[in-house]
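hey team, just a heads up i'm posting the complex here instead of the shared drive bc the drive is being weird again. everything in one block, sequence lines first with there labels, then the predicted structure for the whole assembly after. its two chains so it's a bit long, scroll down
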Amino acid sequence: MAGLTLDLIGMQLFAGVALGAVYVLLAIGLSLIFGMLTVVNFAHGAFYMLGAYVGLWLMAHGGNFWLCLVLVPLVVGGIGLAVERVLIRPLYGRGIDYPLLLTFGLSYIIVELVRITFGKSGFPFDTPELLQGAVDIGVGYFPLYRLFVIGATAVILFGLWLFLERTSFGLIIRAGARDPLIVRVLGVNVAQVWLIVFGMGTAIAAFAGLLAAPLQGVIPEMGGTILAEAFVVTVVGGMGSLLGAVLAGILVGVVVSMTSLFAPEMAKVAIFALMALVLLIRPQGFFGRAGLMS
Amino acid sequence: MLKLQGLNAWYGPSHVLQDISLEVKQGEIVCLIGRNGAGKTTTLKSVMGLLGKTSGSIRFDGQELSNQPAHSRYGLGLAYVPEERRIVPGLSVRDNLKLGLVASPDKHREAELIAHTAQVFPRLAERLDQMAITMSGGEQQMLAIARAMISSPRLIMLDEPSEGIMPVLVDEMFELFTSMKAQGTTILLVEQNVELALAIADHAYVLDQGTIVHHDTGKALLADVEIQERYCSV
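-- predicted structure starts here --
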């Protein structure tokens, strides 16, 4: 009995990491956008949902899952670029609540447009054939697709890390998040950098939505719930910190998954209990800088 | 090289610069002196395009700057070291230097230019991979100047570079300005350390309450104790 439980815990741990991977992808986008633009992007969940729907549409029109992995971020990232350029840019310099309210409203509009176009009920999303089945990971048979989600997230994170640490555009982002003024004085068109960062963030959110689609199906409301959880992740990790988003995302995933093993009805509450606990001990989160919101 | 004519600037409703006209010729060191709040920093910020509302003419190499966004002024060869230095926390000395090149056409010569900078600023050479924020105030100031100089600007504007820095380093810094000038860099300097600044300045302008009240050569102003006392003493 004891050995069985240990295996079960091991399996659940893996399931938690897979769930955490989706949180991580959403949270790094939120964090990147907040760190650079000081925009609290309430439309992030809507972009996540759009990722799943664009994937669904592409699949219905002869595309395959692998093509979607490339096209979905491009399409939704493009929408993100337009949103920043047309809707958010006029609000810079007016305080943090303006873009917050704008994106909040925008998320309702996007969800409603999707309901009008695709209907209110959800769709199943087939797991790609190549990724069906389960593999033995030592403690039991684990769904191959969930392993793929973990792997794909790792690839995105590694790519993002290389981009931020090794390219001069990455240097501009790292510096600009701390001090946009000096970056401007040194000749960088900061408005353009913000545009690209917003586009990147939405592209990653869409990628996460596509990855999540085979796990939970596709419905217009799928972005709302997970956005709240992703915000918890960024708060726990520290607003604006990418490393914080990664660690907190995995932690939250594991906490949810473990709680649902022992007390399923407590799983969603556990996330917020964790956040309350972290905020009591460390108000700026794991890696956040104090006073960033002021 | 740099010519301001009838420059006015506002911070919100307050009219902080009134009809500033001054000229910085190629290869000169020109110094702005005056009390705190006289408008020296505001003048530099206006030239760099960092103020919301200005009027009048700012010409750099005959090109009108007033309608150019701040970021494109750097590309024209105009560099600015703000008073707060603005060393980026979380970045190494090397990355701070690289930041001076990200928008420069010399970006591809990054390694070479960092090596050259390390020669000119030996204090930075030993600390290239250290977090910039852990250095002393004087070293951070050197880094701020080095970062602005790495793209070989034709004119550099320095705001209170000696503020809060050990006297030994201040002397070193003023020697550096003289050698920067010898190598053809034009300098517009704002300084509280009036005597040191006037000693190396070709020309100097005295500001008071947002206007220019006096203009002379550095040498003449250095001898003019009355003007110095009236407009610069605290």
